[in-house]
Design goal:
Blueprint: H1 2-28, E1 32-33, H2 35-45, H3 47-68, E2 73-82, E3 88-90, E4 103-105, E5 110-123, H4 125-193, H5 198-232, E6 242-243, H6 251-254, H7 268-289, E7 294-307, E8 315-326, H8 334-400, H9 406-441
Parallel strand pairs: 1-6
Antiparallel strand pairs: 2-5, 3-4, 5-7, 7-8
Helix pairs in contact: 2-4, 3-4, 4-5, 4-7, 4-9, 7-8, 8-9
């Protein structure tokens, strides 16, 4: 019993030490990540991107498989047979002279057969069409992987700036909490000096306590954003993330947020659709190619020998060349149905191209409007912050003379806090709108 308890305690200690060193190791690799650093980590660790890369690799193997039908194929077939039973051919009439035996052996102990055949497709329109289709499908898979990578990068960038917004909002709310605490302390001092009432002190205390749940809610929001960033990058839940960036842009950066080139040529979704249109066109050609004959050339060698003592002095050898033609006559309407189906798919892709172009233009216009609105809001909130700071500074001096009530101070402080939060939100809207425009134009 004592031995079991000791073993149990040793296992607990080992697990505890392992967890402790794992925690130290995770903290040791913690580093500040800017936007580029997080996006690089996302592209390196994302399971979704790894799976997409595997699909791209598999599509390249499909190209090799399709190309194999156009290359020569060689085959060697070897057979050895050992006969353990002797077979004879018996004569019905006996030879009165006794010169000829009354039976002849019809098999040998050892038999060797060998053949080598080289086959080459001279003209196979179906195999050629499938090879071209496989190449286009591989290019489509590569474009899909690039589009998925850009989409994840865009999502990661938006999450990054949302997390930065949550972090900066925490600073504003923390500042609001400190100011409320200072106001409460000031009211207590004025109360002791006889310049403030007990009601004013309690009001200041209530204002301060209301800032605590707001701050806790912002902290929870920041933690949720970090968890979403970890999940997008396929990182463990406890992976340390320390973000390094400023959500507020400088005046020079604000003057360069507009995008002049609004062409959709680099948009990966449009490029995917154009590639699908090419594949649909090739599928029509592949369906038509099934109506044409196929020509195959073969070059072969046969060897056959039989002997009882492995001498094989006598053998049969044959070298031959063969040209085969396969002509399709009637398929029950299968080829015609495949051609019509391919034409319908091509028409659907062309319609999808038109629809996607209109949708992207609409999204681009909406993102540009959001960007313009965010710029205007930034200017408004900057002026509101400057005005609120001046009002709050004047009110703080007037409060000592009893000319401003704590409620008025609170309203001014809340107005300043709200303006700062709205400014941060406007910068977030600006960055998200810019990311959306870059995603639509294929610039990220």
């Amino acid at each position: 019993m004592l031995q079991k308890n000791c073993r149990y305690k040793f296992q607990i200690m080992r697990i505890t030490l392992f967890g402790f060193f794992l925690f130290l190791g995770m903290n040791a690799i913690a580093q500040s990540l800017d936007l580029d650093g997080y996006l690089a980590l996302l592209q390196e660790r994302s399971i979704v991107l790894q799976q997409s890369a595997n699909h791209t690799t598999a599509s390249r193997q499909d190209v090799r498989t399709a190309r194999a039908a156009l290359l020569p194929a060689a085959e060697i077939d070897l057979n050895y047979q050992r006969d353990f039973t002797k077979n004879f051919l018996f004569l019905n009439e006996e030879d009165p002279t006794g010169f000829f035996p009354d039976k002849f052996r019809t098999n040998f102990n050892n038999t060797v057969n060998a053949s080598a055949i080289v086959e080459q497709s001279v003209f196979d329109p179906v195999a050629l069409a499938n090879y071209r289709l496989a190449k286009l499908a591989a290019e489509l898979a590569q474009l899909s992987n690039a589009d998925l990578s850009k989409d994840l990068v865009n999502q990661g960038a938006q999450l990054f700036w949302q997390a930065i917004f949550a972090r900066e909002s925490l600073k504003v709310l923390e500042e609001n909490k400190v100011l409320a605490d200072e106001q409460w302390q000031q009211m207590r001092d004025l109360f002791e000096e006889g310049y403030a009432s007990e009601l004013q002190v309690r009001q200041s205390e209530s204002f301060f306590k209301r800032t605590i749940p707001q701050l806790q809610s912002a902290q929870n929001a920041y933690g949720i954003m970090l968890n979403e960033m970890r999940a997008l990058a396929s990182l463990p839940t406890g992976y340390p993330l320390e973000l390094e960036a400023e959500i507020i842009l400088s005046d020079d950066d604000l003057n360069n947020v507009y995008i002049k080139d609004t062409s959709l040529i680099q948009n990966t979704q449009m490029r995917l659709l154009f590639r699908q249109a090419q594949i649909a066109e090739r599928q029509i050609g592949a369906a038509k190619a099934a109506r044409y004959p196929a020509i195959t050339a073969r070059l072969g060698y046969h060897f056959n020998a039989q002997d009882n003592a492995f001498k094989f002095d006598n053998s049969n050898k044959l070298i031959f060349g063969q040209l085969g033609v396969q002509i399709p006559i009637f398929t029950g309407g299968f080829n015609s149905a495949q051609i019509q189906k391919a034409k319908i798919e091509r028409e659907n892709v062309l319609l999808e191209i038109q629809n996607k172009s209109l949708q992207l233009r609409k999204d681009l216009s909406n993102a540009a409007l959001n960007l313009q609105t965010a710029l205007e809001k930034i200017g408004e909130e900057k002026e509101a912050i400057q005005l609120s700071e001046k009002e709050l500074e004047i009110a703080a001096e007037s409060q000592k003379l009893g000319m401003v009530t704590p409620l008025e101070i609170r309203e001014m402080r809340l107005g300043l806090t709200g303006a700062k939060l709205r400014l941060l939100n406007a910068f977030l809207d600006l960055r998200v709108a810019r990311l959306q425009m870059n995603r639509i134009l294929g610039k990220n």
